């Protein structure tokens, strides 16, 4: 026997768009006729688009997954990353047999358990105890297996006191913890995990990640792990794949794949003005520069801490306008906001005709070495957005340096070095 | 192909094999079946004061109403069987069948949340509904037994005979037909729900084509022309045999019972086959 635990062969999944009604009946009849009477292949498997959300759809069918070939070794923890709609969850759903593939097949060894969403099948009227048995057997555990793990599950979930209370009285956190505890204590050869670590408090997340590490490291199980949390992927997985529009676009070591994913997801070099979105038709924009440069990659060297944004355009009607700039980090968390319109009282009024907005931001001089994505909006504060440049600028901050020229990366030091 | 089957524990493919009914897998999940049955029974009377007593209240009052409407107002005879016994037996058996059918007929629709997240043989759910319904009916038959003993002590001319041993066969037919029709309907309504509207209404009409509120002899006397319709109904033999075996009235024929058994096998087989075809892909269309 080989040491391959799961083998995906040419897996594709097609979905139909729109609602089901009389319109779909003709397709069904046509399909039935072609397959059963004429003995040919499904005609609708030949059509279908790549699942691209930005493009307007021209076909009734899309491919959520296309030609996935993948082998997962015994005991391997495989991370799956990708944007929303890349097909990650569909892949796991097919593997856990919730839905079937349109083409291809999967071969696997051993029992598969999925944590697609914890607490599946909890009945609100049943007590915690009854639900442990119910949920455990839904996931394929036998009664004796559950009984032998019962105390461990209750202890891990931390619900001793409530075990004979109906689950509908539980807080949402307790429900989720109980669900995870049950799933984590079953012993499948293959564990499929989708985004569950995003629930619960920090303390519980730590325990959950620890439990998953145990499962893979000491018990030799195969784990497939989908998450947007790059930190968790990095910590848990030995190998990763990145999905994009239903296809595998990279497979390799976790670090390579994460870096590639982040790089691809970041801003490509260009002009800031190319990412302009206008929300008000009385405005035209002629130019935007940051520190006199129209380019969208800005480098801030140590001891430099000024950022001058200059926008020129034409107004067909007089307007009050103010600048708002948001600084996001690599994982899309908002870190800082610049908004003089909110901070100070008088918002500047611009007359009809040519206008020029110019603001200089004084960055704290103790920022650490960091990379930000900037979203630049011009608004009437709290009233309306006039135009914006979303995720338009990459700001590379060299950051404050130590006495010997030492750098302080944000991943170790946080946003600021304090004095 | 067979080599691959030996090497791998399971294979996921677009379509399952044509004749695999997956019953082995259902057996593998028997603990889950037990849990579902327990859940159905236990949650039935949670947060009620009368608890399991509610199992009796519904057939009890229905019987009283039937006695009043069909026995009293309409004056339909009951073959000389005391009215409460006649109606109670009919109600218990018929309700079991109709409830099994109605509850199993929307299996996919009501369980899509669970089915969408985790895999187990979907047949477990309608099976559990049918079995928990059976337990409920058996409990209700205690009420029947109580009334039976009461009338026996009052000297009513009812007698139990050896045909009462056919009771398990009757149960099989009721359960099999309820489950079989139910899963056929549930499979056919995942994508186009039109049929669903028909079910509740059709089952109501069906009762009048089954000797629940009238004995077969009345039908034979008055509407001989339509007898074929009632004889084609596989449930007719169940009710008649039950009344014949436990109350000593009505009619019994091995032919009618045999027809019902064969009909049940056929519906069950067809139902399981259709259900297994649908369960693999229903999530995309439900």
Total domain modules of chain B = 1
Q: Helical segment tally of chain B?
A: 14
Q: Which strand-content bin applies to the residues of chain B?
A: under 5%
Unreliable segments of 5+ consecutive residues of chain A: none
Strand content of chain A: 25-35%
Give the ordered list of helices and strands of chain B: HEHHHHHHHHHHHHH
Main sheet of chain B, how many strands, which sense, barrel?
A: none
Number of structural units classed as domains of chain A: 2
CATH class of the largest domain in chain A: Alpha Beta
Structure description:
The complex is a heterodimer of chains A (419) and B (286). Chain A has helices spanning 22-37, 88-95, 128-138, 143-157, 172-185, 202-217, 230-236, 254-264, 340-343, 410-413; strands spanning 4-16, 49-50, 61-73, 77-82, 103-108, 112-115, 190-194, 222-226, 239-244, 247-253, 276-278, 283-290, 297-300, 306-315, 319-320, 322-328, 334-338, 349-350, 353-362, 370-380, 384-397. Chain A has 419 residues and is of the alpha/beta class. Chain A has two domains: 74-264, 3-Layer(aba) Sandwich (Rossmann fold); 272-413, abc- transporter (atp binding component) like domain (Coagulation Factor XIII, Chain A, domain 1), CATH 2.70.50. Chain A has a six-stranded mixed beta sheet with strand order 6-7-8-4-9-10, sandwiched between helices. In chain A, a hairpin with a 3-residue loop joins strand 20 (370-380) and strand 21 (384-397). In chain A, helix 4 (143-157) packs across helix 5. The longest helix of chain A is centred in the N-terminal third of the chain and has 16 residues, at 22-37. Chain B has one domain (20-284). Chain B is 69% helix and 1% strand. Chain B contains 14 helices and one strand, in the order αβααααααααααααα. Chain B has helices at residues 2-7, 23-28, 30-44, 54-73, 83-104, 107-110, 112-115, 124-153, 167-188, 194-208, 216-222, 227-232, 234-247, 254-279, and one strand at residues 10-12. Chain B is globular and about 70 Å long. Chains A and B meet through helix 1, helix 2, strand 5 and helix 3 of A and strand 1, helix 3 and helix 7 of B. Strand 5 (103-108) of chain A pairs antiparallel with strand 1 of chain B, so a sheet runs across the interface.
């Amino acid at each position: 026997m080989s040491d391959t635990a799961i083998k995906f062969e040419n897996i594709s999944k097609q979905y139909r768009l729109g609602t089901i009604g009389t319109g779909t009946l003709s397709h069904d009849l046509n399909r039935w006729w072609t397959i059963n009477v004429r003995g040919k292949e499904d005609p609708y498997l030949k059509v279908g688009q790549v699942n691209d959300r930005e493009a307007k759809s021209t076909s009734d069918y899309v491919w959520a997954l296309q030609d996935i070939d993948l082998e997962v070794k015994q005991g391997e923890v495989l991370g799956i990353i990708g944007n929303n709609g890349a097909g990650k969850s569909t892949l796991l759903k097919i593997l856990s047999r919730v839905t079937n593939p349109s083409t291809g097949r999967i071969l696997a060894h051993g029992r598969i358990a999925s944590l697609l969403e914890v607490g599946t099948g909890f009945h609100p009227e049943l007590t915690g105890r009854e639900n442990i048995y119910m949920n455990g057997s839904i996931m394929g555990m036998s009664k004796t297996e559950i009984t032998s793990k019962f105390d461990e599950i209750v202890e891990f979930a931390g619900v001793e006191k409530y075990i004979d209370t109906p689950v509908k009285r539980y807080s949402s956190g307790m429900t989720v913890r109980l669900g995870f505890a049950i799933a984590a204590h079953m012993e499948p050869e293959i564990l499929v995990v989708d985004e569950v670590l995003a629930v619960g408090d920090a303390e519980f997340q730590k325990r959950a990640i620890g439990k998953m590490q145990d499962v893979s490291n000491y018990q030799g199980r195969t784990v497939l792990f989908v998450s947007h949390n790059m930190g968790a992927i990095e910590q848990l997985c030995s190998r990763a794949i990145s999905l994009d529009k239903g296809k595998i676009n990279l497979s390799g070591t976790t670090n390579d794949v994460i870096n590639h994913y982040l790089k691809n997801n970041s801003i490509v070099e260009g002009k800031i003005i190319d990412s302009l979105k206008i929300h008000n038709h009385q405005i035209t924009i002629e130019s935007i520069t940051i520190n006199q440069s129209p380019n969208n990659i800005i480098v801030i060297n140590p001891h430099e801490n000024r950022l001058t944004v200059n926008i020129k355009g034409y107004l067909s009607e007089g307007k009050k306008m103010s600048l708002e700039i948001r600084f996001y980090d690599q994982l899309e968390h908002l870190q800082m906001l610049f908004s003089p319109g909110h901070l100070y009282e008088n918002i500047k009024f611009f007359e009809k005709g040519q206008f020029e907005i110019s603001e200089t931001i004084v960055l704290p001089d103790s920022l650490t070495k960091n990379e930000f994505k900037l979203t630049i909006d011009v608004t009437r504060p709290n009233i309306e957005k006039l135009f914006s440049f979303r995720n338009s600028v990459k700001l590379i901050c060299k950051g404050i340096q130590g006495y010997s020229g030492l750098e302080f990366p944000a991943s170790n030091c946080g946003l600021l070095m304090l004095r | 192909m067979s080599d691959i089957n030996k090497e791998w524990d399971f294979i996921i493919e677009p379509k399952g094999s044509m004749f695999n009914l997956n019953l082995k897998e259902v057996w593998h999940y028997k603990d889950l079946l037990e849990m579902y049955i327990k859940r159905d029974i236990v949650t039935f009377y949670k947060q009620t004061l009368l608890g399991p007593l509610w199992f009796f209240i519904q057939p009890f009052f229905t019987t009283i109403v039937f006695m009043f409407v069909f026995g009293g107002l309409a004056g339909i005879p009951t073959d000389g069987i005391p009215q409460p016994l006649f109606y109670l037996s009919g109600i218990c058996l018929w309700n079991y069948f109709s409830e099994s059918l109605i509850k199993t007929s929307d299996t996919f629709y009501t369980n899509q949340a669970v089915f969408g997240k985790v895999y187990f043989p979907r047949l477990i759910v309608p099976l559990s509904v049918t079995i928990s319904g059976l337990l409920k009916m058996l409990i209700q038959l205690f009420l029947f037994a109580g009334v039976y003993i009461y009338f026996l002590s009052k000297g009513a001319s009812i007698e139990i005979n050896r045909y009462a041993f056919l009771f398990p066969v009757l149960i099989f037919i009721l359960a099999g037909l309820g489950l079989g029709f139910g899963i056929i309907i549930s499979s056919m309504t995942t994508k186009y729900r039109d049929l669903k509207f028909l079910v509740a209404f059709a089952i109501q009409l069906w009762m009048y084509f089954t000797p629940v509120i009238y004995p077969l002899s009345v039908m034979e006397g008055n509407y001989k022309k339509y007898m074929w319709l009632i004889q084609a109904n596989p449930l007719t033999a169940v009710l008649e045999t039950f009344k014949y075996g436990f109350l000593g009235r009505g009619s019994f024929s091995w032919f009618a019972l045999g027809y019902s058994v064969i009909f049940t096998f056929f519906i069950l087989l067809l139902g399981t086959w259709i259900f297994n075809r649908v369960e693999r892909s229903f999530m995309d269309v439900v």
